[in-house]
Design a protein that fits this description.
78% helix, mainly alpha, 78 residues
Length: 78
């Protein structure tokens, strides 16, 4: 059976969903972040672990960047 253009399946469906999500994030980043926050709090989506992982990774990256900046400053100015 072949999929008709009106009924995407498999990688086509995944690519379409990714493009829709990226479009929402680019055009309305604040609203999309609030929506993703709600999805993570609800916990019913299959994307919840990924959303939480990315959130934790961003926080950790900011902490590491601040610590490295302080360390470099202390090394070169000390």
């Amino acid at each position: 059976m072949s999929a008709s253009p009106e009924d995407p399946q498999g990688t086509d469906l995944l690519a379409e969903e990714i493009m829709e999500e990226a479009g929402r994030l680019v055009h309305h980043p604040v609203a999309e972040m609030k929506r993703l926050e709600g999805v993570a709090e609800e916990g019913k989506s299959a994307a919840t672990p990924l959303i939480l992982f990315v959130g934790v990774a961003i926080v950790l990256a900011v902490i590491v960047a601040v610590v490295m900046a302080v360390a470099f400053f202390a090394y070169y100015e000390g």
